[in-house]
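**Reference record**
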Amino acid sequence: MMRSLYSGVAGLRTHQTRMDVIGNNIANVNTVGFKGSSVNFADTFYQTTSPATGPDVATSAAGSNAKQIGLGSTVASITTNITEQGGTSSTNRALDIAINGEGFLIVKSGGATYFTKSGALNVDTNGTLYCTTNNATVQGWLADADGTVNRDVVRDMTVMSPENLYYEPEATTNVRIQGNINKEDDDLVYTGAGEGVVSNGKVATFSFYDNLGELYTAKMYIVSTKDVEGAPEVDPPEATGDDAGEVALSNYMVMLADICNEKGESIFVRKTTVDGVDTYSSTGVTVTFGGATYQVSEEDGAIDPNTGKFNLALDGGFDGVSVLSFIANSGQFSKITNHGMNEGASLFEKGIAMTINVPAAGDADGVTMDDTFTPYNAETDSGGVVIDLSALTQYSSTSNVSYIKGDAEGKGTGNVAGEMKGISIDEDGFVYGSYNNGSKRCLGQIPVATFNNPSGLEAVGDSLFQQSLNSGIFDGVGEQVSISGSFTVGALEMSNVDLAAEFTTMITTQRGFQANSRIITTTDSMLEELVNLKR
C-alpha cells in the first residue's frame, strides 16, 4: 500500500523538474542566443515479488513471467536543443552578428574559455571586442601590418590597438591618364624657344602622394613632334595581315612642365623673403620624366627673380623625351616610346607607361629639399610613379584629358595618413578598420568553435557554455565560420524557444502533476479506510 505513495511523490518530483525547465525556457524566450531545453523521464526501481520461471517438462507446467512492481519515475535527461537555429532579428548595428550554423563564438571571462551564441559585440576602452551579454572578451585571429590574418592560437581581439588607430601614408605608385587629344588642337603646336626648352603644349595634370602622404601635382605638356627640330624619332610598326608597308603614326612628345606641392609651390624654385622683398632661385632639384632629365636652367634669365616664372631645361635636349604615338587612321593608342630608358624594364617593354622620379633633391645654395619621393629602380622595374597612357585616344572631338590614381586594378593609389573612424565585420568574420583618408584595412578575423556533440556543452549562465567530457574538446585555434556556416551582420540570433510547444508541454506537465497528486490522495483515502476498519 505504501509503495504507491512513493511512486506518486516520484512523479510529482519529475513533473516539477519538467515544469522548472519549461519555466526557464519561457523566461528566456527573448534572450539573445538562448537554447531551450527539454526533459525526458524514465521509470525507476522495480520490486520483484516473483521472478520469472521457465516451462517444466516433467510436470508439463508452463513458464511464468516475473511479477514486478514499479516505484515511480525519474528524470532521465535534460537535453539542450542547441543545434536548432533561433530566429534572426535585425538590429542594423555594424558589430552585431548572428551565427548561421553550428559554430560558437569563442570568448574568455575570468581567465576561462567559454562559448556563446550571443553576437552582440562592442569595443571596450582598450579597443578589444567583447560580448555585451556577458562582458566576456571575444577571442580570434589578429592581422599583421599588411592585413594578413595569422590563423594560430586565438587571443584577445584587440582590434583598436594604438598601431591600428592610424593608417600610415602610402606613396602613389600608379597613375592612369585617360581621355582624348584632338590633333587639330592649336595647343599641340610647339612654339618653344628651341630644342631642350619646355615652354608650351597641351596641358595635362595628375596628382600623386609622396612617402609622407603629401599631395603633389605634376603638370605636363603634350606637343606634336611635327616640324620640331631635334624631336626624337619613332619607328612605326609593321602592318599585319594583307596590308603592306608600315602603319602611319601621329607622334607627340610628353614633357614635364612643373611639379607643385599642396601649397602650389614649385619644387624647382625656392622663394626667399628679405625685408619684405621676395626673390626666387633654383632649388637644384632634378626630375626624370620618362627617359628625360628636367631641371631649371642655370643660364641667366631662366628664372624671373620677381615673379618666380621659369623654364625647365632638358638635359641632352629632346633625345630622352618620351613619345606618345597614335595610329593615324584610327586614332587609337599605339605605344609609348621611352627614349634613354632601360630597355630591359618590363614596364617600358609593354610600351604603355612612363615614370616620374626625383633622383636629386637639390643642392643649390647648400640647401637640400626633403627627398620624400620613392625612387625608380630600373634593375627591379619598381619605384617612382608609373604613368599609364594607354587609355588615351586621338579622335576628332574636343581634347579632354583627365587622370585616375592607381592601376587598372585600383592598386597603387597611395593615400594621406588617416585616423580610424570605425570598424565593421563581414559575413566571413573579417574585422575591418575604416579611416578618414578613405582607406580600409583588415584588422583580424573572428573564428568559431564547433563540437562533435554540441548538446554536451554545459550552460553556465549569461548565455555562456563550457566544454564537458561529453561535448568534445576545443583545440585552442577554432575554424573559419565559412566551414560550418556564416555570419549575418547587423542582426542577432534570437532564442529558439517555441512558445506554442512550451505551452502544450506545460499543459501535459500540469495534468501529469495533477494525476500524480491524485495517487497520493487516493492512497491516503485507502489508508484511511484501512484505519477505519477498527472503530
